[in-house]
Specification:
- The protein has 17 helices and ten strands.
- It is an alpha+beta fold and about 450 residues long.
- The strands form three sheets. The chain has a four-stranded antiparallel beta sheet with strand order 3-8-10-9.
- A hairpin with a 2-residue loop joins strand 1 (about 75-80) and strand 2.
- The radius of gyration is 27 Å and the shape is globular.
- The structure holds (R)-mevalonate.
């Protein structure tokens, strides 16, 4: 029953100047404000501090108001053969079955030609959104006049990137007034090479906005109202349909035969149907793509990239034809089974966390110091492998068998099973179906 606590409702729990507090002052404030057993809450928070003070300080300074660390397991999936190179892929994820599934899929394809991956494009986008009240032709002629200056005034920002072969690719003026009155854009495209490029792009855009606004004020053909361009915002887009990678597996249908696939022809057809269902049915497509993102996010996170940016861009891409659909596709033609993914991924292997977080550096070294393009391929393969493993289970044994086997350890830990109990119970559940209640019963039986 819900007990209404008058005390809590009236508790004063707002605070000003919090960010100026020291770390221990912040923790004490939290303990005093929210926790009944302050000592155990404090002990918990402190137990997650790293004993290496320098390392802890590094993590503290990634964000504001850090109180402790939040662990995720970092696992590895070995045996990935991608374009004839072997990789062990680092994965940071909490979901029990993901790394096991990736490892199974890599092993399955190892003797069937491995994965092939190719980067199709690497263009990124940023926009200056502005309001202009006036004649469009005049705006067009102003844009033509100011465009060289937009580029030249970003020279100090773009110098290094250009030296390495990247930079601003183009800036377009876009008329968006059919969507929103007086709304226009500077729509810019960028090549950011091995950097994810968010800071580079945003700095360029803010410079474009300032040059654009200033120059408009002295453009002779403009009326006073036209000179008064209002910049709404300048920001990169996480929708990157021109930063695309494709990964694929294929083999003869008969070569799909394995311990769990006694009838490869039937398997291939059922697998293809499962993909087709995700292509046409949104409810299924979302779960299908979620499984793909299990693999993608885990590698994106382990390599210090921005998984929220990747998620947002990927799901927008999944709806690019006006309906949310599968990111993977399958064909079974002329005796050949082919399964592939095409996905937008804006990733970096330099800058950001990549040179700061020791485990990110470790992960990148494990991946043989990939370029951003290499990483795009590896991540796309992780997504495809994950989807292959999920569909293989779903269309054969069902997902729960493997999932619950992996989940068994979580349940055992939840009940604080001892090492001896774990050994006994794992042995028992090799021959019995794992369900939450079956595990609880088995634990109780052993403990009696
Ligand atoms: C679970 O995290 C992911 C799956 O649901 C994906 C799928 O259904 O394809 C197993």
């Amino acid at each position: 029953m819900f007990v209404f606590s008058k005390n809590k409702t009236h508790m004063r729990n707002t605070i000003s100047g919090f960010s100026k507090f020291s770390k221990s002052e912040k923790i004490e404030w939290l303990l005093n404000t929210y926790f009944s057993d302050k000592d155990s809450a404090r002990t918990l928070v402190q137990r997650y501090w790293n004993t290496d003070e320098k390392l802890q300080k590094l993590h503290d300074e990634f964000i504001e108001n850090t109180i402790t660390n939040y662990y995720l397991p970092l696992g590895v999936a070995p045996n990935f053969l991608i374009n004839d190179t072997f990789y062990t892929i680092p994965m940071a994820i909490e979901e029990s079955s993901v790394v096991a599934a990736a490892s199974k899929a890599s092993k399955f394809w190892l003797n069937r030609g491995g994965f092939k991956a190719e980067v199709l494009s690497t263009e990124k986008i940023g926009q200056v959104h502005f309001i202009y009240k006036g004649d469009f032709e005049k705006l067009q002629s102003f844009f033509a006049h100011v465009k060289p200056k937009l580029i030249s005034e970003t020279a100090s920002i773009t110098k290094n990137m250009e030296r390495r072969g990247g930079g601003i690719l183009d800036i377009e003026l876009r008329d968006k007034t059919s969507d929103l009155p007086n709304y226009y854009q500077l729509h810019a495209t960028f090549e950011t090479l091995d950097a994810m490029g968010a800071n580079f792009i945003n700095s360029c855009l803010e410079q474009f906005a300032s040059t654009f606004k200033n120059e408009a004020q002295s453009f002779e053909n403009f009326t006073t109202e036209e000179k008064n361009i209002s910049i709404v915002m300048s920001i990169l887009s996480n929708y990157v349909p021109q930063c695309l990678v494709r990964a694929e597996v294929s083999c003869k249908v008969e070569d799909l035969k394995s311990k769990d696939i006694p009838n490869p022809e039937e398997f291939a057809q059922k697998f293809k149907q499962a993909v087709q269902i995700a292509e046409v049915e949104t409810y299924r497509a979302v779960t299908h793509n979620k499984g793909i993102m299990n693999g993608i996010d885990a590698v994106v996170l382990a390599t210090g990239n921005d998984f929220r940016a990747v998620e947002a861009g990927v799901h927008a891409y999944a709806s690019k034809d006006g309906k949310y659909s599968s990111l993977t596709h399958c064909s079974v033609e002329n005796g050949i089974f082919k399964f592939w993914i095409e996905i937008p991924l804006a990733l970096g292997t330099v800058g950001g966390l990549t040179s700061l977080h020791p485990l990110v550096k470790f992960s990148l070294e494990m991946l043989q110091k990939p370029t951003a393009k290499d990483l795009m391929k590896i991540v796309a393969v992780a997504g495809l492998a994950q989807n292959f493993a999920a569909l293989k289970s779903l269309t054969t044994t069902g997902i729960q068998e493997g999932h619950m086997k992996m989940h068994l350890m979580n349940i055992l830990n939840q009940f604080e099973a001892t090492e001896t109990e774990k050994v006994k119970l794992i042995e028992h559940f090799k021959k019995n179906v794992v369900t939450h209640s079956a595990v609880v019963e088995a634990i109780e039986r052993i403990r009696k």
